[in-house]
Design brief:
Helix 1 packs across helix 2. Helix 9 links the parallel strand 4 and strand 5. The chain contains ten helices and six strands; from the N terminus they run E-H-H-H-H-H-E-H-E-H-H-E-H-E-E-H. With about 230 residues, the chain is α/β, with parallel strands linked by helices. It has two domains: about 150 residues, Rossmann fold, CATH 3.40.50; about 60 residues, no CATH class. It has a six-stranded parallel β-sheet with strand order 3-2-1-4-5-6, sandwiched between helices. Keywords: Hydrolase. GO terms for molecular function: phosphoglycolate phosphatase activity.
């Protein structure tokens, strides 16, 4: 496992995405690509294939907007109670390997740790209750609080004012390249691409950003254990 070139001693603020970065995105992929199309097919009395095709096309039109992760919006779009459906499969919500060790290490080193997410507050609540990782964050900010998704500069301008981080001493980790590009343009100095977002999907790659496969890569050698 290669050592990441991230100077933790120079970093005071660590900004972390949730879905796909800290949490296994399999939960979300299964929900949006399998479970919801299945329920939608039953409701509309169409085949699973047709339901999935229709929903994927509708998702695409809202990608990169607040609607993309707004489960109240989607509940209205498909006439299905999305929060209730997510609750039914919350047992699938899992933290990526070594995330908790990494978060504990950051707290021990007195870093300011912020969760920055596009997730809807109802989904955030379900996931933090299931994983119990909320205790590691100094603050949490969502796109819905700020009125802009992370893909837009306005999100970062508002987040900086709200959280009080300094760009030149901040590390940001996310699994979405469009978000990383927005953060880079805004001026965040240290950026990592989380290349393994789902335990059931292919590893991603990035030419522009240094890739992080596993959070163990950011742990000091003496804290990695065997």
């Amino acid at each position: 496992m290669s050592k990441m070139k991230v100077p933790l001693d120079d970093i005071k603020y660590v900004l972390l995405d949730m879905d796909g970065t800290l949490l296994d995105k399999y939960f979300d992929d299964y929900f949006w690509e399998h479970l919801l199309p299945e329920k939608y097919a039953e409701k509309k009395n169409v085949t699973f294939g047709r339901a999935k095709e229709e929903l994927l096309a509708r998702y695409k039109t809202h990608e990169g907007t607040l609607n993309w992760t707004d489960i109240d919006f989607w509940s209205g779009e498909v006439d299905i109670d999305i929060p209730a459906l997510k609750e039914q499969i919350k047992h699938l919500i899992e933290v990526h390997p070594h995330v908790e060790d990494f978060l504990m290490m950051l707290k021990q080193r007195r870093k300011k740790v912020f969760l920055v997410t596009n997730a809807h507050y109802k989904v955030l609540d379900i996931k933090l209750k299931k994983t119990r990782i909320g205790k590691y964050f100094d603050a949490t900010v969502t796109a819905f609080e700020l009125g802009y998704p992370k893909e837009m500069r306005e999100f970062w301008e508002k987040a900086e004012k709200m959280l009080g981080f300094r760009k030149e001493r901040s590390l940001f980790i996310d699994d979405t390249k469009a978000v990383l590009l927005a953060a880079k343009k805004f001026g965040i100095k240290y950026i990592l691409y989380k290349s393994i977002s789902s335990s059931k999907a292919e590893k991603g790659s990035s030419e522009e950003f240094q890739s992080l496969d596993d959070f163990r890569e950011l742990m000091p050698q003496r804290q990695k254990g065997v």
